[in-house]
Amino acid sequence: MSSSNLVAGGRAAGMADRHASVDAVDLSWLYERYHTQVFHLALRYCRGDVAWAEDVTQDIFLALLRLPRTLVAQESLAGWFYRVTTNRCLNELRKENFLRSAPVRWLLGRAQPNERTPERLAIARDELSQAFESVNRLPAKERVVFFMVHVDGKDQNETARTLGFSKGYVSKLLKRAEQRLTAAGWKVERHAE
Amino acid sequence: MRSKDIVVLIREQDDQLRQTPMSLAAETRMLRRLREAAAIPARRNGAWGGVLVVGALAGGAAVLGWSKLRPAAPVATVERNTASASSHRDPGQCAVRQEHDRVDVSGPCTLQLPSVTLRTEAASEVQATQEGIQVLHGRAWFEVAPVPRGAPPVRVRVGGGIIEVVGTKFVVNQDEQKGSVDLSEGRIRFLPIDAAPVEIRPGQQVRWTNVPMVRPMPSPAVESPNGSAVHQKTASASPTWASPAAKRVAASPTADPGAPDTRGDAGPTTAADGPGGSPLSAEATALRVMRLRAEGRYNEAMTALAELHAANVDEHTAEILSFEEGNILEHLEQTSAICSHWKQYLDRFPNGQYRSFVVKQMSRDGCP
Lengths: 193, 368
Fold this sequence. Notes:
Chain A is mainly alpha-helical. Chain A has eleven helices and one strand, in the order E-H-H-H-H-H-H-H-H-H-H-H. In chain B, a hairpin with a 2-residue loop joins strand 8 and strand 9. Chains A and B meet through strand 1, helix 2, helix 3, helix 8 and helix 9 of A and helix 1, helix 2 and strand 1 of B.
């Protein structure tokens, strides 16, 4: 996170104080600064669904108003947004999976959603899209852990802290994810950051 | 088994997703929703008003003391749009240069002014000075905090005139020859150099052809809470005129577009004085009146017009001057004089080029 204040005593430096009274102006400023990061993370976890990512982005910033401000001030805002967005997406994915489960669909009288729509199939024709599709077919927790470790370069301790899991559980999720991808015919290599 | 590592592919795909921008409509909707949500707790706290007042009084002294020690608020704070995780992938770079009270911004930046949040896209250039903001070229997204009643509006100078803002969100596109403004929320008024002001409503777009600007806008335009402000720089736009009327005035020998201040001088000199004290022609003065009117200096424009009343001008120039006078009266809200003036205009110029506008305006003014 880089900032370039034109004069001394810029807004970034005073953010901890200002954050003690989050108002519309502060919220707008936070939005301007972090919405790209939040939107991108949401877009990644929701298989590129822009509307879904926009909803999540809005929810994240609305949640900012309800949180004790000291919690936010204690850590870097970029880290806070990363953690909150990732967890929010994970919760949404789990909720989505729950609603798609057979008993719930039977109770709600909904049909089986067709994940492989013609649009999806059309964009999945190249190897890049096929890889993305494969990762998106992983269970929600495994998918998030996979992205955090392999794409964002987080180590397993950090991933565990962010998601509120034990390190052992993160390790297990990651291993399962890699096994699933290998079984699907992909090569999975560990990349040192 | 596929030969390529899925991690490499996923990273590549993630980079592509990073380039996917949120739509402007979604951003606008979201910011509005956030502002509304931010306002709700304040209303709920109304029941605790008494407690808050006591607390406010108790804290008042501390705040007062703190504010004395507090360093001055920044004139402007610029955040690179690259602040997020996508920093190394943004096309172009944000470049900011500050000289005294002027800020030049180019590339994808977010500029936080006292009452304006301004975001520029790549290949854009914007200047902010104490007197306002100028979009030189490119695309700039504005969000202006509501201007308190009685306070001067925020002014954004563009190639074809000035956009007056009282609290809204809009996007300005400006290139070498023309430009446009798209209003997404609120209300703005566009003051063209050579035509009647235009009220713009959400969802509407107004386009213009650039008109040369040789003088800075009058102050103040963007005032900061602590008295500091940002200055606006003049533009050098292409020497084309948007309307036939303006073209005709500009083409007159005495209104040389290349000669600074002979047409648009808004300084303390009178309308009859050119640079060096020589009298200006009626055409040059008419152009000066348009400039003054476009810049909101209505009283000065009326003074300049009054000095032309006795001048011997051709019919076309007379019509422009009469139309200008009516417009200025509208701005000055001289309701008693407006109707009679427009009636005189219609009587004198039955086939005038502004006739339809005048008829509509008379209807809006409730003229008999």
